[in-house]
Amino acid sequence: MSATDAYSQTEASHASPRTATDEARAALWTQIIGTAKHLRKRDAPQTARQPSVLQLKQGATATPVYFIGAGLFEFHLARLISSEQAIYAVEIIWPSEWHDAAVRNDIAACPPLEELVARYTAVIHAHAGPSPCVLIGYSFNGNIAFEAAHQLQALGTRVERVMLLDCPPEYPVWHLAARRSLGQIWNSQAGSAPQSFATKLRASGPVIRWALAAAAKAAKQSFLWHAMGDPGLLTTKLDTLGRPLHWRLIERLYDHSLRDYRIRPLDSHGALFRADRAEDCPSPVIDESLGWSMLFAGGFDLVPTTGDHKSMVEQSPHDLNLARDMSQALDQSCAKLKEQKQATS
């Protein structure tokens, strides 16, 4: 089931008041129509400034929850979550200069992660004020949520929890990931007992096969981009001139944004909802937390969920399982804040 179909079925199955999400629907359709005009080779008009904070679900508690990004997946998951918090989506219109820098592959003109995230931070800080809040990010939006939590707390907005939907803190290119795994194998870091040459060679086989497949995929993408002029799938993310961004341009911006980023621990609670990551490089040293467990001073929860990186948010029953687990985490967060408030009153 596609994300569009999932969202349509969710809309048809709920009889909740529409006032909370009319603005969100309008923003989503603005993105979709802008992309449709581009596909029909019609110039999209310069976009009006869309609301940066869109309410996806009404709530009864005082702790707002913010999804980073306002795409179909966020709309769909928000309607499935059963917790009592009000749920919002935060989206920014990307500057056309970023779009142009990605097209030129001008690394210096692409924003570092701190600059990219600062726009989300300003929006959330203005909306939440000093009130405690929860941030949620799927895929690279999880990395944005993590840095936004740092920036928000520096501004005085407490981030009680960051919920990461299947994203690692680092994204090494394929050859560096393979080199790291091979180094772990041949340096005997998988265990205390020495391993024979034949054992190490056998363990290297899956890594080498993965690296060859990753190299072939990278070569294919490079050929399609440079020889065929194919920038990849078109998304509904618009820039300030109303132009939709292709996915490979977004990936390029994300990659360049991490060039000098320094990951540091966050004084908050973290939760990783981890899917089946069969696409990762095989490694003798498996970190189920993907590297997040030591980066949250307020505690960390690892929540395995069903499905892979895509199906966990767009296909039933995986999306229902994820929404159930997210609801439990949000309920725990709300209960913790209530206890803290009662203890100080």
Q: How would you portray this structure in words?
A:
Residues about 1-20 have low confidence and may be disordered. About 50% of the residues lie in helices and about 15% in strands. Strand 2 (about 65-70), helix 3 and strand 3 (about 85-90) form a beta-alpha-beta unit. It has eleven helices and nine strands. The protein folds into two domains: about 5-170 and about 235-345, Rossmann fold (3-Layer(aba) Sandwich), CATH 3.40.50; about 175-215, no CATH class. With about 350 residues, the protein is α/β, with parallel strands linked by helices.
What's the structural blueprint in terms of helices and strands?
Layout (H helix, E strand, L loop, with lengths): L2 H11 L8 H18 L13 E5 L7 E4 L3 H9 L6 E4 L5 H9 L8 H16 L4 E6 L1 H16 L3 E7 L8 H13 L10 H30 L7 E5 L5 E3 H11 L11 E6 L25 E5 L6 H4 L3 H27 L1
Parallel strand pairs: 2-3, 2-4, 4-5, 5-8, 8-9
Antiparallel strand pairs: 1-3, 6-7
Query: Can you tell me the number of structural domains?
Result: 2
The proportion of residues in beta strands is 5-15%
Distance between the ends: 49 Å
Number of helices: 11
**CATH homology superfamily of the largest domain:** Alpha/Beta hydrolase fold, catalytic domain
Largest sheet: 7 strands, mixed
Radius of gyration: 21 Å
* Low-confidence parts: 1-19
Order of helices and strands: HHEEHEHHEHEHHEEHEEHH
The CATH class designation of the largest domain is Alpha Beta
Overall pLDDT metric: 84
